[in-house]
Every structure is written in C-alpha cells, then in structure tokens.
Design brief:
Distance between the termini: 63 Å
CATH class of the largest domain: Alpha Beta
Radius of gyration: 25 Å
Protein name: SAM-dependent methyltransferase
Number of strands: 26
Helix content: 25-40%
Organism: Nocardioides massiliensis
Largest sheet: 7 strands, mixed
InterPro entries: LicD_transferase (IPR052613), Methyltransf_25 (IPR041698), SAM-dependent_MTases_sf (IPR029063)
GO molecular function, one term: methyltransferase activity
CATH topology of the largest domain: Rossmann fold
Number of domains: 3
Shape: globular
Number of helices: 13
Keywords: Methyltransferase, Transferase
CATH architecture of the largest domain: 3-Layer(aba) Sandwich
Length: 524
Amino acid sequence: MSAPHQSAARVHEVRVTPSAVHVRTEDEVILDVCFDGRRVWSFWVMRDARPDADGQGWTAPWPSSLHRYLDGRARITVRAHVSGAELFDEELSFGSGAGRIAVVDAEGRPLGIDKSGRLALTFDTRTPDQVAPLLDSIGEVLAALRAAGADAFLAYGTLLGAVREGALIGHDSDADLGYVSRFTHPADVVAESFRLQRRLVAMGYAISRYSGAAFKVDVLEADGSVRGLDVFGGFLWDGHLHLMGEIRTPFRAEWVHPLGTATLEGRTFPVPADTDRFLAATYGPSWRVPDPAYVFETPESTHRRLNGWFRGIRVKRQEWERTWSGERLAEPALEPTDFARWVYAEEPALDHILDVGCGRGVDAYWFATQGVQTHGLDFVPRAAARLAARAASEGVPAEFGSFNLLELRSVLGYGARAARLEGRRAVTARHVADATDAWGRRNLWRYASMALHEGGNLYLEFLVQPGGDGRGREHLRTLPVGLVVEELEACGARIRHHEVLEVPPVDASGQPRRTGRLVATWER
C-alpha cells in the first residue's frame, strides 16, 4: 500500500453528514476529524473508506465506537494530518441536536480513537503532571528488567515518539518497552518472560499477560486513570529479529546492542543501537511521517510463527475484549440468568460458587447477595470491574480474577486454590465449554476435577443448536451433549444429570435455540 501524500493535494471536496465523512480525492491522504477543535478520529481515505458507487469519491462511516456520542451539536473540522490544511469546518447537528457533543469517559475525561481503533485517553488530552507517573514507571520498570537480566528499551510508538519528536505521540494511548533475549529458543524466551513478570509483581505492579512473551503493566496516572505499559519480549534467531507483537525481519545483533539513549518528555531512556533500522523494521521506510491512523500489516508467515510460539493462550482474546468494551460496560442490570436460579434452586446451602466465565459478573454478584462466597473468573476480567467494585463497597462476598483456560499455569494455580477451600462448593460454567476449543474444555474439566476432588457438582450450560434468530452465533460453537458427556467421563467424572432445553426465539417466526444443561461430579 502506498504511503499517504504529505500534502492536501487534489482533495477536491469534504462533506460531513450525521452518518459519514465524504471525500473526493485522487490521492491517498490522512484526515483528522476534530470535534470543537479537538482531534477525535483519523483515517486514511482510500484504505479505510469505501468507494462511492459513482466512482467520484469515498465514504467513511463514523466508527461504531463514536455512535453513542453523536447526539447534539459540534463544530466539526476536517484537516489533512500532515499539512494541516483545513478542508471542512462547520457547526453540525446530530441526532436530537440538543446540547454540545462531548466525547468523554464517565469521569468527563476527553477520549480519542487510538491506533488500535479504540476510544482511549490519548496522550494529546493529558497534561505533563498526569503522565509523569507513567514516565516514572517506565524508568522503574526498565531498571527492574535490567536488574533481572533483560536490557530493555523504548519500543514501538514510544520509541517513535522519542526519536521523531522527543515526546509521547499525541494520538497514542499506551507506552511500549521491548527487549531482545539472550535466549534463542521460544520456550526459553517464554520462561524468561514469566520470570520478569514475577519480579514486577513483587514490586507491587498489576500485570496482565498478552502472550507467552508479552505482558502489560498497569500504571496509575495522577488523576487515577490506568495506563498500559506494554513489555514485549523478542529474540534473534536464524538471522532475524522476532519481537512481539508484530516484527520478524532480517536483523543483526549490533543493531540492538549496545543500547543507545534518546530523550522522551525531557527524560533520558535506553533505545536500540540503530533506531533508524529498528523503526523502519517496525513502521516501514516512511516512519518519519506522522500517521495517527497507522495499521500494522503483519505478513501471514510472521503471524503464524508468533502465534505458534507465543500466542496459544490468547485465542479470541481480542474478540472478547471488544465484546466487553465501550457501551457494553455501562452499569449492568442485576437480574440473574435462569441458569443461576436453577443452580441455586438445586443447591441453596453452598459455601462457595466458582463461576468460570463470569463475564459481566451478574450471576456471580447475585450468588453473593444470597450469602454464598462467590469467585468470579473470566478471560477478560475488566468485564466484571463495575460489579467487583460494587461488591467491595457493599461488603458482598464476591471476588473476581483473571482466568485463562488456555494457560495451564492459570488452570493449575486456580485449581489448587479452589481445592483448599473449606465447605460445600460448586463450579458453574455457563456458555464456556462452547466458547473455547477442545484444549480449553480439557482444562475446564481439569480445573473442575481439582476444585471438586472432595465433593461438589459442576454445572454446565452450552449451545446445542442455534436458533433461527441467530442468537448465540457470535462467539459460541455447537456442542452435542454426547460429546460433553464422553469428555467428562474420560476425565473421571460421573454424570448426574443432563437435558436439552428449547429456548424460544426473540422473533416468534424463528426456530427455537436448543441449550444443553449438565451436572457432573468427581466424588469418590
């Protein structure tokens, strides 16, 4: 794909409507869309917009993440990003047209669409005092990694900002560090990454893992905002640099070490020895040209290698994070599912419920309000953040944690904790077995067998047949009841009950959905 032009040449017309931005141009160009003078969204015209039927222009619909904000009035300005040429500037009305449009979070902090297409607290909305803790943490984490044997450096957008501008890039929303391991085998690189994670956890940092060789450090900014500091591991092998999450390129060790330095926001940090080659490997030869809409175009061969080596634990993570983002994270209704009511009716005297795949945490919170100590576990723990905070403030006996059925250490760790609980317990998993693969199901059975080795039941609900209304198709796969029974019995479980329920469709003209329910135990 050719790089965008560095001027506004031959952009003949820009129109903005409540549904889209319309552009007439013969050239690829990056456009910034501003609300009342503040950049909120940027896009490449030919890459991101769709061609009009008449062949005369391009139409870029408003991103779905902005839809809920487009109600009111705003001064919309469209500029060519590199040249700054103003191509459109008008007061417009959206939706009801009442009030000013404010693209802000629940605390009133300004949001912008970052390089990943997510609404975030981008750096161009933050003050120096607000980002100072992030810079402090960059220095602290770099020192900790160095003490643990990893000579880490600024990477990706953070390196780009330091080299090109000496500052954090305005449209970016996180900070990136990288290191090149002394190991050359992926298994050793993974073991080293977990060792580095443990060191940072011991320092008090909250860590969430992306893959076998990359993790995120949560950093609190001055106003309480949480900023991600990503740590990407890499290694040199077969004449190539492999760096999570996007790089595989011919490279030489002396282009990385010995590390040099660069200035970022007035502070000096380590950088690769040859920053030009490193940034060209990351962003291509045009890395010096600012591009707030940059998209990584990773070769399929690189994607396959990095997936096979390091990403087995994050299958469908991105899809689930999108599911539990934006407007879907508004305050949830507190009505439990029929499944939760069924479990509680079966066993009202439980001491513990271990709710695997708790999602928003509604069922887990409800179980806790019935007096049951509840442990909500999910692939994307932020989904339950609101109810976790509510439970803590109300003294409701519920706790929530990050749990990954694709990561054996997660399964064994939580399984060992559950095995030590005292009292009667049950494991619940609603639409979990049908949302993972065979490996994930095997680990679900492994976890349940550990948690229930001294008694208690596993309660499952899963999709047997989707309905005519299509509900349940987004993340779920169908599972025959016989297959689930066979897998559980092969793991030593005894099936106490199974049935198939028909769930009426939302649309009366559609076919009903069929859902399986099953109860199993490992009691000796």
